[in-house]
Amino acid sequence: MSDSETGFGKGCHLHLIDGSAYIFRAYHALPPLTRKSDGLPVGAVAGFCNMLWRYLGENGNSSDAPTHAAVIFDYSSKTFRNDIYDLYKANRPELPEDLRPQFPLTRDATRAFNLSCIEVQDYEADDIIATLARQAREAGGRVTIISSDKDLMQLVGGGVEMLDAMKNKRIGIDEVIEKFGVAPDRVVDVQALAGDSVDNIPGAPGIGVKTAALLINEYGDLDSLLARAEEIKQPKRRQTLIDHADQIRMSRRLVLLDENTPLDFTLNDLEVRDPDPTALVDFLNQMEFRTLTRRVADRFGTEAPALPDPAPATAPSQDSTPDMPEFSAAQYDCVRDLDTLNIWIDRIRERGYVAVDTETTSLDEMRAELVGISLCVDAGHAAYIPLAHRAGGDDLFGASALLDGQIPLEQALRALQPVLEDPAILKIGQNMKYDAKIFANLGVTVTPIDDTMLLSYALHGGLHGHGMDQLSDRYLNHQPIPIKSLLGSGKSAITFDMVGIDDATRYAAEDADITLRLWQMFKPRLHAAQVTRVYETLDRPLVPVLAQMERHGVKVDRDVLSRMSNAFAQKMAALESEIHELAGESFNVGSPKQLGEILFDKMSLQGGKKGKTGAYATGADVLEDLAAEGHDLPARVLDWRQLSKLKSTYTDALQDHIHPDTGRVHTSYVITGAVTGRLASTDPNLQNIPIRSEEGRRIRTAFVADQGNKLVALDYSQIELRILAHIAGIDSLKSAFRDGHDIHAMTASEMFGVPLDQMTPDVRRQAKAINFGVIYGISGFGLARNLRIPRAQAQAFIDTYFQRFPGIRAYMDDTVEFAKKHGRVETLFGRRIHTPEINTKGPGAGFAKRAAINAPIQGTAADIIRRAMVRLPDALAGLPARMLMQVHDELVFEVPEDSVDETINRVRAVMEAAAEPLVRLDVPLVVDAGIGDNWAQAH
DNA sequence: GGTCTCACG
DNA sequence: GACGTACGTGAGACCG
């Protein structure tokens, strides 16, 4: 070796890269990528190149940059160790078929990066590394071995260090001692005793690393130990060492690296050279690695060569299900280090899209903690990144300790953030609003997105639900792992952070895999189903809008609710004793069954009707009838029920929903919650806060504006009737709306021939009921019940109505006809609502008809407010107004006092013009506004 | 878990 | 001619 002043020596720094380890890691971490032009498998080469590129980037400008470097490979799987022990590494799985042809390409890649590429027949890469490390050490230089292979740890010390590139962790003497319990020079002794199942090194049966280290530390080294084996106290251990001494010695020969591998070059030949940009770009281009080629070309300022156009990102064809691998053959990786994560990130960038799923500790996004993230870019190959899994409960202290082998959450997040926020990379999820909120909590804005739940909603609204399990079963014929199987259910249920990482990987990666497959299937179908616009303008854009509303929440005054709860409790107690007295016995007023028996059996009141379950009906309508006949008990029960409802559902339950940190209530809107296009609000439902009764309405006073702010509520006036007038083309209704007339009074006047100036409240009330009935698909029975009039009279009203407004009848008939023919109806904006029951016979037929009649009206109104909501963030830009709630035809905002007027002006303008320009309604949309310190005032 | 009841638009 | 029915939701309580 050259010790001359010009050659390798003191001050020099040699990097030895374990190339074979790189290749296997790249292969197993990446989907089976092939070269577009000829199908040559190149996935491992791609990963390998990415790693080398990153290696150069990290070391190029570092003050600790290597002066010399080499990439070392295994020549073949057969080495001199097979002559020592024919079973050495005999349990290794067969080399994958598509990996072997990539071996020569990785050598080419190394040379293209202008790195020395080294392999020696009959020797392992580890022997070459050992030899070069020894030479460098003896020459007085430093060595960094880039590998995490424990078999190389025997080389550490005397200026030799290892670098675990995955964990970006240096391995020095201390780390080796931590791992093996002995210094590097005794590592082979420990390994010889402990053996190694991966390399099929027998060692001493029953002795592991811990015991081996104990023994070596006690006896000094392996030879001394074996020589003095008789002295070992434990009989079994003593016998093992005596019986297997030869096997142990052989094991040591297997693990001991050969520091004298014959080499036909010197360290001086390994001097670092800059890559030749042209050669490198040429090679990458040949491999057809688009992203990396461009990146390298950019870096060196060379022209990226022209490449043929890639296949479109959305490869699946229009009319056929894309070929997908079987789920049984799917590969789900667990990503435990940054290097592997970066491989996935590169893969995502290469593709331009990725299916993402988060696993958390709660379904409530405001309380949920991120536990892990899964990714998928190719059907059948997904990854799970565990981040916050914790030890199970057995260990007294372990319960809160993070498990090892997880990338620190913050690091993983910062690595993923550029991808999640990259406008050129599509993030695909199932119910992305959930995941987007989880990421938003961590400061990451996920955009742009696609959502398989919303795709299904646009495509299949009315046909079935859009949960992932359901979609997977129906469209992929695959039943995903039930979450219950991991978490259990009921009281003993655990949170996801307590799930083992292996189980979690299978579950979470599968979810991302399923999501990607559903997306590949659904996305190309939007056009054929003519719902692209619905999805892209009405549904998908709502995700960020709702996410922000939900995260912001609405301030709720706990004291107001608490005081009301107490008041309700007192009143209920008084009513309860009164009711028991009237009944002559004590019973559970809240039990419809017991109440029915009291009313109709014990008290023998008339009108007792049993439903299909054999229980008496005791609904409000029944009790009201009885009360009207002068019975006190049902009247008291009605009062009690109202209070009970208000207390349990609102004043009590709402308090539990006040977030401890924000002091606000954060609902969750379900975009696919109603088939018509309406939203649904859950946990809690803020769309059914009382208003009709005076007592209930007071609950709204607990919904307050923050200091210095006002609540502003804007709602569409009569929007569904206006839409009906437009769709059915009723001229008289349209002109009444245009002229701003009282629509119910006008209807009454038309129907009953009463002049407007002589209109009575009662006649108007009846007309109003008819107007609403029409929207719901009117029936004589329903109207009769609603108005409490004889059915014949109700039917007469309806007949008159249809005579006066024949367009309504025509609309209803046409709509049902359309539904029967196409199995669906549509809103003015093209939303399709399927009506699979429309052709069934029997009692269901009436239901389906009325639903079909109602859906285009309710749905069009829902579409309109969706359009307004999507436009509002831009329209309110620069204003401090916050949108808080949506209640079907109403939007509620929180606004600093001095911005109230401007906010109302802008919101009203957006809401009133929300149908345009796509639809020009023949009637104006009118929006009423209210302002207050609380929601009751604002309405 | 199904049924009943009731809160909203 | 009889049969049940207003449309769309979510949640709490009861009960088997």
Automatic annotation (TrEMBL):
Q: Which InterPro entries match?
A: 3'-5'_exonuclease_dom, 5-3_exonucl_a-hlix_arch_N, 5-3_exonuclease, 5-3_exonuclease_C_sf, DNA-dir_DNA_pol_A_CS, DNA-dir_DNA_pol_A_palm_dom, DNA/RNA_pol_sf, DNA_polI_H3TH
Look up the EC number in the record and give it: 2.7.7.7
Give the superkingdom in one word.
Bacteria
Could you tell me which PROSITE patterns the record lists for this protein? Answer: DNA_POLYMERASE_A (PS00447)
Question: Domain named 5'-3' exonuclease: which ranges?
Answer: 9-273
Q: Where is this region: Disordered?
A: 301-326
Q: Which SMART domains does the UniProt record give?
A: 35EXOc (SM00474), 53EXOc (SM00475), HhH2 (SM00279), POLAc (SM00482)
Q: CDD domains in the record, alphabetically? A: DNA_pol_A_pol_I_C, DNA_polA_I_Ecoli_like_exo, H3TH_53EXO, PIN_53EXO
Q: What is the main EC category here?
A: transferase
Chemical reaction(s) catalysed = DNA(n) + a 2'-deoxyribonucleoside 5'-triphosphate = DNA(n+1) + diphosphate
Cite the entry's keywords alphabetically.
DNA damage, DNA repair, DNA replication, DNA-binding, DNA-directed DNA polymerase, Exonuclease, Hydrolase, Nuclease, Nucleotidyltransferase, Transferase
**What region holds the DNA-directed DNA polymerase family A palm domain?**
696-899
Q: Does the keyword Repeat apply?
A: no
| Domain spans labelled 3'-5' exonuclease | 332-527
Q: How does it assemble?
A: Single-chain monomer with multiple functions.
Could you tell me what this protein does?
In addition to polymerase activity, this DNA polymerase exhibits 3'-5' and 5'-3' exonuclease activity.
The name on file for this protein is: DNA polymerase I
**Which species is the source of this protein?**
Roseinatronobacter alkalisoli
